[in-house]
Amino acid sequence: MLGNFMYCNPTRLYFGENALDFLRDELKKYGDTVMLVYGGGSIKRNGIYDSVVAILKECGKTIVEDGGVMPNPTADKLREGARIARENTVDLILAVGGGSVCDYSKAVSVSAYCGDDPWEKYYIRFDEPTCEIIPVGCVLTMVGTGSEMNGGSVITNHEQKLKVGHVFGDAVFPKFTILNPKFTYTLPKYQMTAGIYDIFNHICEQYFSGEDDSTSDYVMEGLMRSVVHSSRIAVQNPEDYEARSNLMWTATWALNTMVAKGKATDWEVHMIGQAVGAYTDATHGMTLAAVSLPYYKRILPYGVKKFVRFAKYVWEITADGMTDEELAKAGLEAMEAWMKEIGLVLSIKELGADENMLEGIADATFILEGGYKVLTRDEVIDILRESLNA
Ligand code: NZQ
Ligand code: ZN
Hints:
Elements: E1 12-15, H1 23-27, E2 33-38, H2 42-45, H3 48-58, E3 62-66, H4 75-87, E4 92-97, H5 99-111, H6 118-124, E5 136-140, E6 152-157, E7 162-167, E8 176-179, H7 189-207, H8 215-236, H9 241-254, H10 268-280, H11 284-299, H12 304-313, H13 324-341, H14 358-363, H15 377-388
Parallel strand pairs: 1-8, 2-3, 2-4, 4-5, 5-8
Antiparallel strand pairs: 6-7
Helix pairs in contact: 4-5, 7-8, 7-9, 7-11, 8-9, 10-11, 11-13, 11-15, 12-13
Bound molecules: 5,6-dihydroxy-NADP and zinc ion (ZN).
Zinc ion binds at residues 145, 198, 202, 270, 284.
């Protein structure tokens, strides 16, 4: 491992079937007014809303509700949330939901007192917050993004056709997160598998980069094996606690910044996937699934050594007289077979994209330099077209 770094993760986690009980301990640390943020209503249907509200009331909190956070939260919604938080001088933002609700809550936390347009400030100019930041806590109900233990916050602007992530520093990480795997049982299968691929791709983004011998690569191979193993069980039996708890835990470790320390990372699949999302508003994990295979096939010749390692240690393929190139390809074939097995979307057509959007999606794609091959705009178009015709 050749990089120099500082590592600190300030988020306190409570994991397991009784994790919500510890919300009481956390609430003691904050003032009386809690902004309860949630999505389109799943938490009301599955009872999580009632459990959380009961604890808030028991702890004597005044609740300011901000529901209706949409998947892929928008800049307009963010402006509204910032106003609600400011006008009610909230002491804590409690996000109860998936990555969208957590991301949105973090964005609100830095926007309430920023005195500027939050979209322009954080998502166009990428300024860092200098204002008061409202603390955020999370009760996670959907697994995949890692938002529960990181500073990431992705916001979509439909007018500008942009979906942009800002990775904020320690001060914006959730102060605490409640992780109860049972809270994820009611997720529709489509969302569950999208989340599974989001986890897997977060690991790929950090794995397929760099040449040095890094402990993180060994950790990531273990995480990928665990995701594949548990995903196969969870798609058959979504109420298998062991599988769902392992998925929840790998999701957190896949993107809580630890495995990225000291090594190069890529993130180009996310850049293309987010641009697809800006045009289609499709489910995040599915946008990644749909562009991954054409992307990895394209960069494979530039990173054969790592793809060979992927084939051997993640998919347990033995060389058996194969050349390195053949072995590397066999690894990607195994990944493709698994993606089909668990029911992921492999074409952006299925997500609502069409030929007329390709130029615009390519323009909305940030080209990064951490992967094995820096893409050209034409290559982004080729990848999109391959996915469209898959
Ligand atoms: O809105 P509700 O009614 O709650 O329904 C949600 C939503 O429709 C539903 N859901 C969540 N928990 C449920 C449930 N339905 C039934 N039972 C439950 N227990 O699932 C749908 C999707 O939820 P959402 O929060 O949008 O999904 P996800 O967790 O995948 O979050 C996606 C957002 O996170 C961003 C994505 O770009 C996207 O905007 N990301 C954030 C990252 C980060 N903070 O580091 C990194 C990721 O790569 C990603 O970009
Ligand atoms: Zn992701």
